[in-house]
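Bumping my old thread because nobody answered last time. Still need a sequence for this structure:
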């Protein structure tokens, strides 16, 4: 005869947490704790559920109760560190995370949390780096461990090329392990943008940067995607600005080539300059508009930004005016080059305000 097995309430709570049903998880903990109010596991799970629900004071209270009933539980100390860090009590959080790592040094999550807490402490970057590396050593298959390495190496503010190289390698490994993660896609694209410089997006770096930001938008349009859309706008504005400057330079070169009055040889040289510039622009934009989804996202950004959309139209008009000008009689090419210069100037002025903005995180 089969025996009736009483289900473990902790397992039910963990299932709720895995499914994202945090309120039900907390309610299940409350019911179970009425029968066993000192259960360390249930108190720890109550802290986790409360934290997820934004009830940080309760999360701290439950974690401290869990530690009182089970002082050797690394999970309880880690839960306390998480809650304390969220409310800005970095020193206490770091102490709790250190205790968790000391109690269970082979658990990579403890070192990860310790690294995160150390990042909130002054002059603790080296220690945070060591803790993050220890997490990677213990769990090389965990994408979050590699992401933490990148976060430590590339904090907010200036970074050296070596730091950027290391951060990019860590971020690429995190993305390899979890290719659909919107945060990883966004942060890797942001790293590439910083490495190339906002001034460098006029070259080949733009396509890879835009692909990363677009992937983040598609993977998480409501969360990370909002910041990614802003970064796409930043890159596109800079592209229009750089290309408007190229048109202005081409117009000046064309005026010199044409001579006064314009010669036949000067006209053909002028047309060749315009054709080469137009071909370069077509190749650049085709490289940046890969796939239907990416095209849709970029078009959406352009439509929503009046300065960007008007600037793009002015830039296209400048090219058309220059192209037509090569075949006008008399001084027509000179007037066309001047008009193109003015149109391109207007496009650049409309989009230059974003050239000094920082990259949103």
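Sorry it took so long. Here it is:
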């Amino acid at each position: 005869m089969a025996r009736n097995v009483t289900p473990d309430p902790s397992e039910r709570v963990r299932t709720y947490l895995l499914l994202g049903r945090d309120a039900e998880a907390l309610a299940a903990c409350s019911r179970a704790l009425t029968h066993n109010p000192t259960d360390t596991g249930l108190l720890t799970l109550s802290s986790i559920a409360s934290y997820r629900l934004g009830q940080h004071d309760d999360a701290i209270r439950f974690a401290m109760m869990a530690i009182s009933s089970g002082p050797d539980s690394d999970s309880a100390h880690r839960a306390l560190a998480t809650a304390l860090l969220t409310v800005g009590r970095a020193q206490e959080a770091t102490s709790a995370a250190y205790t968790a790592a000391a109690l269970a040094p082979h658990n990579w999550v403890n070192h990860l949390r310790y690294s995160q807490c150390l990042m909130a402490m002054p002059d603790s970057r080296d220690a945070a780096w060591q803790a993050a590396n220890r997490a990677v050593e213990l769990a090389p298959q965990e994408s979050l461990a590699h992401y933490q390495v990148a976060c430590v190496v590339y904090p907010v503010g200036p970074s050296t090329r070596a730091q950027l190289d290391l951060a990019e390698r860590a971020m690429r490994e995190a993305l390899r392990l979890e290719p659909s993660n919107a945060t990883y896609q966004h942060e890797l694209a942001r790293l590439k943008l910083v490495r190339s410089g906002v001034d460098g997006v006029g070259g080949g770096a733009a396509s890879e940067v835009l692909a990363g930001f677009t992937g983040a938008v598609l993977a998480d349009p409501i969360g990370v995607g909002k910041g990614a859309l802003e970064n796409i706008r930043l890159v596109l504005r800079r592209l229009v600005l750089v290309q408007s400057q190229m048109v202005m330079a081409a117009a000046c070169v064309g005026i010199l080539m044409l001579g006064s009055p314009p010669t036949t040889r000067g006209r053909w040289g002028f047309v060749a300059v315009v054709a080469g510039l137009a071909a370069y622009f077509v190749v650049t934009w085709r490289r940046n508009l890969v796939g239907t989804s990416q095209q849709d996202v970029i078009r959406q950004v352009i439509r929503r930004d009046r300065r960007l959309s008007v600037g793009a139209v002015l830039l296209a008009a400048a090219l058309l005016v220059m192209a037509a000008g090569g075949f006008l009689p008399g001084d027509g090419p000179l007037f066309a080059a001047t008009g193109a210069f003015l149109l391109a100037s207007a496009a650049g002025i409309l989009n230059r305000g974003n050239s000094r903005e920082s990259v949103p995180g």
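The radius of gyration is 29 Å. Let me know if any region looks off to you.
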